UniProtKB/TrEMBL annotation:
This is DsrE family protein. Gene3D superfamilies: DsrEFH-like. InterPro entries: DsrEFH-like. It comes from Streptomyces maoxianensis.
Length: 111
C-alpha cells in the first residue's frame, strides 16, 4: 500500500466474499484510519458481507469511519432484501454508484 495523504477520497467496490474480500476490508479500514474518506459499495457476491454477522472486517471498517452501501438490486435478486444488515450498512442503487464514480478526485478500486 502506498503512503496516502489524509483527506483522500476513495470509492471501493467489493463484488466478492470470503478471504480475499476480508483482506480488502482490512485495507479499506487502514485507508479510513489514515484519514481518508472511504466509501464501500457491496455488489454481486459482495452483498453477503453486509449481512449481520457475516463479516469480521466490516464492523472494523465502519468503526474506522468508513461508509458502507449495499446494492438493493442484488439483495432483492438473491432474496436477501429482508435479511438483517450489519448496523451502519445502507442500501443504495447503481445510480448512486455511478454518481460517486464520477466525483472529481475520487480514487476507485473495483474488487
Amino acid at each position: 500500500m502506498t503512503q496516502d495523504r489524509p483527506g483522500e477520497q476513495y470509492l471501493l467496490v467489493e463484488t466478492q466474499s470470503g478471504g480475499t474480500a476480508e483482506r480488502f476490508l482490512a485495507d479499506a479500514a487502514a485507508l479510513a484510519d489514515a484519514g481518508g474518506r472511504v466509501r464501500l459499495f457491496l455488489a454481486a457476491d459482495g452483498v453477503a458481507l453486509g449481512i449481520r454477522g457475516a463479516s469480521a472486517g466490516l464492523p472494523r471498517f465502519l468503526g474506522a469511519g468508513g461508509q458502507v452501501w449495499i446494492d438493493e438490486f442484488t439483495l432483492a435478486h438473491r432474496a436477501l432484501h429482508a435479511a438483517p444488515l450489519t448496523p451502519g450498512v445502507r442500501t443504495s442503487g447503481m445510480g448512486d454508484l455511478a454518481d460517486w464514480l464520477l466525483e472529481p478526485g475520487t480514487r476507485v478500486v473495483w474488487h
